[in-house]
């Protein structure tokens, strides 16, 4: 053992002892519980014991050999034993069994019949985070507040070194060595969902949608005071994409491996598994990935044009290169990054991403050559050949119709968009509550995605009233207009919101941490994951606030993306 480890051990030893009341001694320890004895002299004559014990961290329950126990809160318990009689100075001895989920709960205070015997203030529990978006005078649906909270959620998903203005205070720096396996700095970007893989494809779609929402619903953002948070949320991803674009035809599209990452339930700050970096290049192309990232960077360049022209221009250069890369070395990205296959395989191919990227470049540059390219992709891949159901990280066709129409005013695209919007209202499946149900996995997110398309259409003069009111109803379902559940599906917002999202970092306590109960413990997540939209109900309307149900109760960057944009739209029109 070297001197440093010895010092560390000594430190841990003393740190451990310092917080304990020494009239309580641990006798035996098991996983998740321990037995201890309380031994002290009675400070006065006792006729009936009343012993109050306070613990430093959360206790699940306390068991005794005799007497009875009352739980005051998660940290404080009162033991009463009316039969116990001792005179002042005589010893009182009690055996306790302490059950807990996470951090070993040391006794930091005890009071016997109103006399303080021990109090140790050296160990303090960090203050819980407060909602930075708490508005006074909340309206029935305070879209501005939820918009604000949605951006807070993105701060909870941040990977890499965190800035001083980080509002999610229970997060810390993590995954600082990402990319070290390939000699690049790939720190930063977003953790995908309840896990800690940085999946580039959905991260890029998330960024495109946040960008679209900010650019086309800037007024809504400004009205809610959220423009700067919108830019920050986009930049957190685009800074990472610029780093990941290591050469003209080389782009890192994933850090972390699904299997080992998902097998770990803990905080990203404490991860120790290998986090391999995966790339696409001229030999192994990745058209969907490069195309979607090009789209994200192009729309981001529009978003940053006003406030930071130099950054906007760097984003646009990379966007053009990545689009060229996507087009030139065509290949399904999951064949080049097979680790993504089980999670974000591109099911519908790359024709839509090529078209979508070219359209966003047309929007960002005003250069008609990109419209011509988009038209060529449209024809080549015959993007009208099957009907469209979802608008998602995989399938961008509904967005392609909207953008094409916006850029060309050509009614063939408008007609397709209208057919789709009509189908959503009268042809699609709904839950009994009235939520459009496009997928069992993350139904809420799919409803939010199409609500955004509908709100975008309304703003652009397409069947305004109908599209707006339908979308308002869908977002309303997510915010609590659902008589079956009478709940909001946004963590920390509205009535009866989910408290147990399938999300590792919010379900684990601060260090020193041990999160082996994080997934299974039945109580709420340790931290409130403000602003996260959970997966949502099944087709027949079933939903439970159950952390183990990752189909209906996970959260993800892509779940909140178009949702954020839709909220900005609703702020704008309400
Ligand atoms: C395209 O979008 C811009 C920005 O929202 C808008 O000003 C313009 O009117 C739109 N054009 C069409 C044809 O919808």
TrEMBL record:
Query: Any idea where the Glycoside hydrolase family domain is?
Result: 143-567
Q: Which InterPro entries match?
A: 6-hairpin_glycosidase_sf, 6hp_glycosidase-like_sf, Glyco_hydro_9, Glyco_hydro_9_Asp/Glu_AS
* Signal peptide residues on this chain, from the entry's feature table: 1-19
Which residues does UniProt mark as catalytic? 545, 554
Gene Ontology MF terms in the entry: cellulase activity
An example GO BP is: cellulose catabolic process
Keywords of the record: Carbohydrate metabolism, Cellulose degradation, Glycosidase, Hydrolase, Polysaccharide degradation, Signal
Pfam families, from UniProt? Glyco_hydro_9
EC number(s) stated in the UniProt entry for this protein: 3.2.1.4
Q: Which reaction does it catalyse?
A: Endohydrolysis of (1->4)-beta-D-glucosidic linkages in cellulose, lichenin and cereal beta-D-glucans
Q: Is Metal-binding set as a keyword in this record?
A: no
Q: Which domain of life is it from?
A: Eukaryota
| Family as reported in the entry's similarity comment | Belongs to the glycosyl hydrolase 9 (cellulase E) family.
Tell me the PANTHER family matching this sequence: ENDO-1,4-BETA-GLUCANASE
Q: Identify this protein by name.
A: Endoglucanase
Q: Which organism is it from?
A: Scylla paramamosain (Mud crab)
